[in-house]
Amino acid sequence: MTRLLPRGGTFLLAVIAGTAIANNYAIQPALTSVAADLDVPLSLIDLVPTAALTGCMTGFALLLPLTDHLAPNRLVTAQLTALAAGLALAAAAPDAAVLLAAYLVIGAAAGVAAQASSVAGRHAPPGRSGRGVAIVAAGMSAGILLSRLAGGALTDLLGWRRMLLVFAALALLGALSAATLLPRQRPHSGRSYRATLAALLPLLRHHPQLRRAVATGGLWYFAFNLTWVALVLTLAQPPHSLAPAAIGLYSLAGLLGFAVLPLTGRLTDRYGSQAVITAAMLAAAAGTALLATGLDSPPVAAVGLALFDAGCFAAQAANQSRVIALDPHRSGSLSSVYLVFYFAIGAVGTGLAAPLLNTLGWQGTALTALGALLIAAALGRTGIRQTR
């Protein structure tokens, strides 16, 4: 019999997920400060978010399936400890090469956020699995949304190196809590870890809807990362020349994305994931259009970011519901495949932000993201079958 989470366990997992995944984004408002401190071109430091996403993608591929093989207290504690070590290495980095290597580790360990979601669903009381997963998803969303604000404010207050040490301390605190409170029961699995990994890619061949979910999700995550990294770089340069803390404030506009998550679940259950994804993509596209034309007006930019983030978060919640529903008994493996490709395509968006910004300018980069969102809306509209 699967042991249930203790009282407050789901909330702990939500906090762990949020503070862990935040490390993929918290350094973005400080990129110009990091480049100046290490005396390297900004285009090189722009690879730091890419390294984080690449590491996270690797973690999803190799570490997320471990939720079917290791006890939650051991697995989550080990990854949070590795996360703290990676952050400490990044804080002491003498050059860009060490910083990039550290962020590969940070990204892989930050993938514990996805494991937290799986643990919450598996160890929830009967009939409340969906609620547990939603709470952890809300924690992840809050971590993503507030990470740039926290990273920018801490960078202004303490410097970027000490900012990373603050996040390292949070990871260690989470590791201690996980070791103490999470279930010690090892999952029963009918296959070895190697067999689990070998069975991942064939899932794409057997599930056409998984392929469609990967394509649509990847497109909006490409647009999400492209827009946010390009926005940070644009606001940090003339004529805006904003400080990291001021740039981080722009993430507050995305709180609407966090607020719509509970509503998204109800709408998906009632109308199906296909309708929710299409509507969400159209909202995100409208927000991107506002950003492309109204960045010089803070109110217009705030509305644009609110629509953009709300659309992306709502679509992601509906899409993951569709993936899990394909085969609930193999939801971990299905989620692993989905998230690997999702983050891989997102990493491309992150890596292209600086080159596209230099070539096309802010408006051209935003319009590129807009095109990706419209394609995702079209794919969502032509989904094979609704998930209810």
From TrEMBL:
The keyword Transmembrane helix applies. It is a multi-pass membrane protein. SUPFAM superfamilies: MFS general substrate transporter. InterPro entries: MFS (IPR011701), MFS_dom (IPR020846), MFS_trans_sf (IPR036259). The chain crosses the membrane at residues 42-63, 75-94, 100-120, 132-151, 163-182, 213-236, 242-263, 275-294, 300-319, 331-354, 360-380. Pfam families: MFS_1. Residues 2-388 form the Major facilitator superfamily (MFS) profile domain. Its main location: membrane. It is found in: Cell membrane. The keyword Electron transport does not apply. Keywords: Membrane, Transmembrane, Transmembrane helix. This is MFS transporter. The lineage of its organism: Bacteria, Bacillati, Actinomycetota, Actinomycetes, Kitasatosporales.
